[in-house]
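User: Batch of two.

Assistant: Item 1 of 2:
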Amino acid sequence: MRRAAVVMPVRTPVGKFGGSLRTVPVEDLAATVVREVARRSGIDPERIDDICFAQAYANSETPCIGRWAGLHAGLPVGVPGFHTDRRCGGGLQAIVTAAMMVQTATADAVLAGGVESMSNIEFYSTSARWGARSGTQPLYDRLDRGRERSQPEARFGPISGMVQTAENLAAQFGISRDSADEYAARSHQRAAAAWQAGHFDGEVVTVTVPPHGRSPASLVARDEGIRADSTAAALADLPPLQPSGTVTAGNSSQQNDAAAACLIVADDKLDVLGLEPIGYLIGWASTGCEPAAMGLGPVSAVAKLFERTGMTWDKVDLVELNEAFAVQVLAVLAGWGWNEPDKLNVNGSGISLGHPIGATGARMLATGLHELNRRGGRYLLVTMCIGGGQGMAALFESA
């Protein structure tokens, strides 16, 4: 079987919810990274066999985002595209799906990634098409509704949202508010230090924001959600999101706008296409868990991945574990029985950089592979929990 090489992973800056990227449509974010991957890699666009792109909050404004993004980016009309979704794991799923395509020789080069513009997720009605005889008709916020309906209520009971699942883990593992705030502050401090050291320079693509209203056109080149001065003491002043809870806005991931992408190429076609890999996919796994404890998904996913690949913790050089919540990260570390801070989210993650759902997995891969090569390491583990009760994990090796 052919090896799947990762070529030219890039990402946009991660915009705050309602921030500087609010007026940039999701198709523009996606096209920005699609266009840049093609430009930086130097691949002949005609040789791109497909585009696999994730978006968790899709709608009919840009149906089948992979195809839409390719056309919008100016790629040849003959390049097809499709859309995939595994919620928080969607971006990583797009990459491993592309890898399976090249491994099985159904494609030689696939452009893969993910995108989310959470600032532009709409409100919607489920009753407007045929009307109603009387009564108030609800208009749902797709963001909140997607979290509330992440599992069949008839089987699992109601879950108010992802915050409730995080509080369940805090209670199960005895995680304190202080430890959650300390972890969150560290995430911000690491992300700020990474920008200061220039560690993101090679992966971030500047986004052009078109003029709107009285605001002229502008450029966005840096992540917006990082608070360099964050401390555990300052975070301790924030109220919990649920009464007597541990989870706050400060120790949770953000809602964001961003896109990330890369090329996935068969190793025996790299020279033919004139491409230089940054890494290779070794293996991946996905698992299910109880929806009410969705944050533990990486525990079983990594166990399954290690069993399949023969990998052990002592061989892993870097770990990118998505920070949906600080308590979720701490619970996963306890479940793994592993905790090496100098290898974990060394440049920050969802709490500091943000969590643009469909783009997150591809963003983590871009950040992780660039850092792995900067350090001269060999193995990178990328893993995340997934709303609805899933986990996903993938192992990459440096080129």
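Item 2 of 2:
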Amino acid sequence: MNADPHELQKFSDIASRWWDPRAEFRPLHELNPLRLGWIDTLAPLAGKRVLDIGCGGGILSESMAVAGARVKGIDLSSEALGVADLHTLETGVAVEYEEIAAEALAAREPGSFDVVTCMEMLEHVPHPAAIVQACATLVRPGGWVFFSTLNRNPKAYLFAVIGAEYIARLLPRGTHDYERFIRPSELAGFARAAGLTPHGFKGITYRPFSQRFSLSDDTSINYMFACQRSA
């Protein structure tokens, strides 16, 4: 299985706090409107069948459902999925969740989704290229695939690891392994090898004084990547 047990356990241990906007997942709550808006601009979600890979507690999954999509979220953390299911009961937002690997779902349901998202997950798995290939298999011809991850360079290490985990304490220490960060050129290469056509990158910048995230053209730290499967 393309998963790191230590990484799964790390997120499972704090799964109960997934929907607390002041706890460990605060950055995801603050990033979510930016990500949702960018995705919806490129691939309008209303009426689309959408898959959220590595959905965790369902922050992005629920917001895409609210935007009018028919959403399925998958993850390998039963604890996180339990939290996601419970939250849908509280909010009444319809999302289908399943504990299954992306590769297994790709073998079962190829070409089944209009949009596939895989946010902040690639840097936590042993073989990210295999996840990209699964995404390409799962999306229908002409459909969109969206990724977000962290660039691998000294600046990213300084800000995403030292700054975010040890100084600003935006994230728990040990959240990220710098060696698993992925350069945009590498991710674009994975996408092309999987039969996806790169569409563009968008950077995410954190402003410490205002404590806000914003979209930018600077992909040196956090970035998103959009691509399409050839029709």
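The radius of gyration is 16 Å.
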